[in-house]
C-alpha cells in the first residue's frame, strides 16, 4: 500500500546566508513498507523524526531524496485532491474556530466536492453523519467545536479525517494529552475502523505500551534513521529500548494480550545501588 | 443542506432589502429633499427638470460607486481575514492604500492632473497600488512559497514608509496641492466620470463572482495551511490568487474613491457574527453589507451638516467603530448564545 524508498528529508533554515547550505537531513535513507490493512506504529525518542516522517507521507514536506509510493504511484505525481481522497491526517492540534462539530466534520468532504458544486450533496451529508456516529459524538454535533473537551475534539478530528473516505489514515500522537479512558477509547476506535473497514493506519505514538497493544508492526526511529522494523515483540525489549532511549526499563508480558509491557524503572534506584561507588566523588565536594 | 440553503437565502434577501432601503433613502434625502413618491414620476416623465438631474447626475452615481466600493472593500477584507486567519487584517494593512496615496500625491504635486487630465488621478493611484502589490508579493515569496506572516509585516512596513513619504511631500507642497492631497486621502464617493463608475462596478462584481470559485478553499484555509493541504487544496496557488484578487479589489477602490477606512475591517466581522464562518454565505453577505454600509455612511456624510459635506471616512470610522464595539459587548445577547 505505502512504500517509502530511500527517503531523506530536511527542513530549510529560514535564514540561510550561504554557509548553511549543506543542511543536515532530519530523516536519512528511510525504507519502509506498509501493507494494506495494517496498523503501523512509528515510535522513537523525541527528535527522532517521527512527525517529519508523517509530514513527508502527507506531502507537506518535499523529500530531498527518495520517493514515497502509494499503491505504486509517487505521491508527488498525484493531484492535491486525488491524494486527499486517499490519505487523511489527524493532526495533534488545530486552530479552534467558531463552527459546530457537524460543520467541522463536513469540511472533510472538500476533496470530494466537484467543480461548480456549491452545496454539499445528500451523500456528503450522509457520509459525514455516519462518521459522526461512528466516532460516537452524535450528541455533540450541534455544539461549537471550541466548547468541547480535548478528547471529544480528537474524536471530531478523526471524524473529519474519516469523512474524506481515505484508504490510509495517518495519526500524529492521537493519545496525547488525553486521560486513560479517552486514550483507550480512541485507540479502540482506530482498531475497530481497521478491522471493519480494512483501513490502513499509520500512527506516531509516544506511549510504548499503547504502541505495543494496538500496532501490528512498529518502526523504531532513532536519530533520523530506521533502527528496526518488526512486530512489538521483536522491537520492545529492554536492550533495544536502553540503546535507543538511553533508559533502563523492565519489559514484562501483558497477561491479557500477551504483548510486551514496559515498566519504567526510576533512575533513583540505580543511584542508590551505586551510591557506595560514587560516595568518593560526592565526598570530595 | 436544504435548511442551510434556506437560511442563507433568507440572509441574502434581508441584506438585499436593507441595501434597497438604504439606496432609496439616499436618493431621497439631501440638500433638496425629494419624496419617495416623486421619484417614480420623475423617472417616468420628469426628464430635464432639476430634480431629475439631481437624482441621476449627483445622487445615483454616488450610490452606485458606494455599492461597488463598499462591496469590493468588504470582500477584500473577508478574503484577507480568511486567508491570514487574523481578525485584524484589513485591505489597507497590506500597504496598498499607502502606495495609491503616494501615487496620487506625486501626481498632484507634479501637476500631472492639469497636464494630462483629471483621469490621471485614479490612474496614478492605481499605478501606485500595483507597484506596492508587486513589491509586497515578491518580497514575501521565498522558494515559491508565499509566507503569510512575512506578507503582513512587509505590508505594514510599506504602509509606514508610504505614509512618511506622503508627509514629506505634504511638507514641501504648495498650499492648494496640500488641500488636494488631504481631500483625496480622506476619501470621497464623488466621481463625475460615468465610465469610471461603470468600470469599478463591473470589476467589483467580477471580483465577487471570482471569489466564489475559492469559497471551499477559504473554508479549508480557515483551519490552517497544513490542514487545507490535507483537504486537497493547492494552498500555494490559492494563496497567491486570493492575495492578488484582494489587492486588485483594494487597489482600484482606493484609486477611485481615496482611502475610505473601516469598511473592510468592520463589515466582515459584523457579518461573521450573524451568518457564521462559512465563506459560501460570508462572501456575498459581506459584499452586500459593505455596500449598504458605505451608501448609508455617504448619505449621512453629505447631509449631516449640509450644504457642507463631511469626508465619508469620518462617518465610516465613527459609526462603524461604535456599532462594532457595541455589538462586540452585546454579542452573546444578539446571537442568543
The N- and C-terminal alpha carbons of chain B lie at a distance of: 23 Å
Number of structurally distinct domains of chain A: 1
Q: How would you classify the helix and strand content of chain A by structural class?
A: alpha/beta
Q: CATH top level of chain A?
A: Alpha Beta
Give the averaged pLDDT of chain A, no decimals.
87
Which word captures the global form of chain A?
globular
- Specify the biggest β-sheet of chain B: 2 strands, antiparallel
Of all chain pairs, the largest interface belongs to:
A-B, 33 and 26 residues
The average pLDDT of chain B is 88
Q: How would you describe what is shown here?
A:
The complex is a heterodimer of chains A (285) and B (337). By secondary structure, chain A is α/β, with parallel strands linked by helices. Chain A has a single domain (2-12, 21-283), classed as P-loop containing nucleotide triphosphate hydrolases (Rossmann fold, 3-Layer(aba) Sandwich). Chain A has 11 helices and 12 strands. Chain A has helices at 50-57, 80-86, 101-106, 122-134, 150-163, 180-197, 208-214, 232-235, 238-245, 267-273, 275-283, and strands spanning 2-9, 27-34, 39-43, 65-70, 73-74, 87-90, 168-172, 200-204, 217-222, 225-230, 249-253, 260-264. A 6-stranded mixed β-sheet of chain A has the order 6-7-8-3-9-10, sandwiched between helices. A 4-stranded antiparallel β-sheet of chain A has the order 2-1-4-5, with helices on one face. In chain A, β11 (249-253) and β12 (260-264) form a beta hairpin. In chain A, α4 (122-134) packs antiparallel against α5 (150-163). The radius of gyration of chain A is 22 Å and the shape is globular. A two-stranded antiparallel ribbon of chain B has the order 1-2. Chain B contains 16 helices and 2 strands. Chain B is globular and about 65 Å long. In chain B, α4 (96-109) packs antiparallel against α8 (175-186), α4 (96-109) runs parallel beside α12 (235-257) and α13 packs parallel to α15 (312-329). Chain B has one domain (2-335): ABC transporter involved in vitamin B12 uptake, BtuC, CATH 1.10.3470. Helix content of chain B is 78%, strand content 1%. Chain B has 337 residues and is mainly α. Chain A binds chain B through residues 12, 58-60, 79-85, 87-89, 91, 94-95, 97-99, 103, 107-108, 110-111, 113, 118-122, 125, 164, and chain B through 1, 4-5, 85, 143, 212, 215-216, 219-220, 222-224, 226-227, 229-234, 272, 276-278, 280.
Amino acid at each position: 500500500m505505502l512504500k517509502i524508498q530511500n527517503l531523506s528529508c530536511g527542513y530549510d533554515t529560514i535564514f540561510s546566508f550561504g554557509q548553511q547550505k549543506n543542511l543536515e537531513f532530519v530523516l536519512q535513507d528511510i525504507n519502509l513498507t506498509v501493507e494494506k490493512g495494517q496498523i503501523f506504529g512509528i515510535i522513537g525518542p523525541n527528535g527522532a523524526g517521527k512527525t517529519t516522517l508523517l509530514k513527508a507521507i502527507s506531502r507537506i514536506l518535499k523529500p530531498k531524496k527518495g520517493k514515497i509510493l502509494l499503491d505504486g504511484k509517487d505521491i508527488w505525481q498525484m493531484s492535491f485532491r486525488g491524494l486527499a481522497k486517499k490519505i487523511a491526517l489527524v493532526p495533534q492540534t488545530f486552530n479552534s474556530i467558531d463552527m459546530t462539530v457537524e460543520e467541522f466534520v463536513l469540511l472533510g468532504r472538500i476533496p470530494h466536492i466537484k467543480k461548480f458544486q456549491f452545496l454539499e450533496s445528500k451523500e456528503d451529508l450522509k457520509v459525514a453523519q455516519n462518521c459522526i456516529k461512528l466516532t460516537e459524538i452524535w450528541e455533540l454535533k450541534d455544539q461549537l467545536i471550541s466548547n468541547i473537551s480535548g478528547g471529544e475534539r480528537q474524536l471530531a478530528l478523526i471524524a473529519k479525517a474519516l469523512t474524506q473516505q481515505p484508504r490510509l489514515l495517518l495519526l500524529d500522537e492521537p493519545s496525547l494529552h488525553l486521560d486513560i479512558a479517552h486514550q483507550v477509547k480512541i485507540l479502540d476506535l482506530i482498531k475497530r475502523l481497521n478491522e471493519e473497514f480494512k483501513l490502513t493506519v499509520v500512527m506516531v505514538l509516544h506511549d510504548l505500551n499503547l504502541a505495543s497493544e494496538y500496532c501490528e508492526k512498529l518502526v523504531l526511529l532513532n536519530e533520523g534513521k530506521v533502527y528496526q522494523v518488526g512486530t512489538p515483540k521483536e522491537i520492545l525489549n529492554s536492550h533495544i529500548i536502553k540503546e535507543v532511549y538511553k533508559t533502563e526499563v523492565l519489559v514484562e508480558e501483558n497477561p491479557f494480550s500477551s504483548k510486551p509491557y514496559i515498566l519504567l524503572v526510576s533512575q533513583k534506584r540505580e543511584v542508590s545501588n551505586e551510591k557506595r561507588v560514587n560516595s568518593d566523588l560526592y565526598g570530595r565536594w | 443542506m436544504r435548511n442551510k440553503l434556506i437560511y442563507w437565502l433568507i440572509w441574502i434577501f434581508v441584506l438585499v432589502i436593507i441595501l434597497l432601503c438604504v439606496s432609496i433613502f439616499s436618493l431621497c434625502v439631501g440638500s433638496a429633499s425629494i419624496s419617495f413618491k416623486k421619484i417614480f414620476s420623475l423617472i417616468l416623465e420628469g426628464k430635464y427638470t432639476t430634480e431629475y438631474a439631481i437624482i441621476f447626475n449627483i445622487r445615483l452615481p454616488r450610490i452606485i460607486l458606494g455599492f461597488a466600493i463598499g462591496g469590493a472593500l468588504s470582500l477584500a477584507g473577508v478574503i484577507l481575514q480568511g486567508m491570514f486567519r487574523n481578525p485584524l487584517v484589513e485591505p489597507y494593512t497590506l500597504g496598498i492604500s499607502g502606495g495609491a496615496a503616494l501615487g496620487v500625491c506625486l501626481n498632484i504635486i507634479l501637476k500631472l492632473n492639469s497636464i494630462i487630465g483629471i483621469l490621471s488621478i485614479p490612474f496614478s493611484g492605481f499605478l501606485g497600488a500595483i507597484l506596492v502589490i508587486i513589491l509586497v508579493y515578491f518580497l514575501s515569496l521565498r522558494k515559491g512559497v508565499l509566507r503569510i506572516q512575512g506578507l503582513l509585516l512587509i505590508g505594514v512596513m510599506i504602509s509606514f514608509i508610504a505614509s512618511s513619504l506622503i508627509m514629506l511631500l505634504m511638507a514641501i507642497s504648495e498650499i492648494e496641492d496640500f488641500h488636494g492631497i488631504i481631500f483625496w486621502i480622506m476619501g470621497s464617493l464623488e466621481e463625475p466620470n460615468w465610465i469610471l463608475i461603470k468600470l469599478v462596478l463591473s470589476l467589483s462584481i467580477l471580483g465577487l463572482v471570482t471569489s466564489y470559485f475559492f469559497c471551499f478553499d477559504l473554508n479549508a484555509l480557515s483551519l490552517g495551511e497544513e490542514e487545507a493541504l490535507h483537504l486537497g487544496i493547492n494552498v500555494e496557488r490559492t494563496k497567491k490568487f486570493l492575495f492578488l484578487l484582494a489587492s486588485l479589489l483594494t487597489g482600484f477602490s482606493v484609486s477611485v474613491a481615496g482611502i475610505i477606512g473601516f469598511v473592510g475591517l468592520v463589515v466582515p466581522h459584523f457579518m461573521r457574527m450573524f451568518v457564521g464562518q462559512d465563506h459560501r454565505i460570508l462572501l456575498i453577505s459581506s459584499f452586500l453589507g459593505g455596500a449598504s454600509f458605505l451608501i448609508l455612511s455617504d448619505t449621512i456624510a453629505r447631509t449631516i451638516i449640509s450644504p457642507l459635506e463631511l469626508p465619508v471616512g469620518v462617518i465610516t470610522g465613527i459609526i462603524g467603530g461604535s456599532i462594532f464595539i457595541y455589538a462586540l459587548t452585546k454579542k452573546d445577547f444578539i446571537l442568543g448564545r
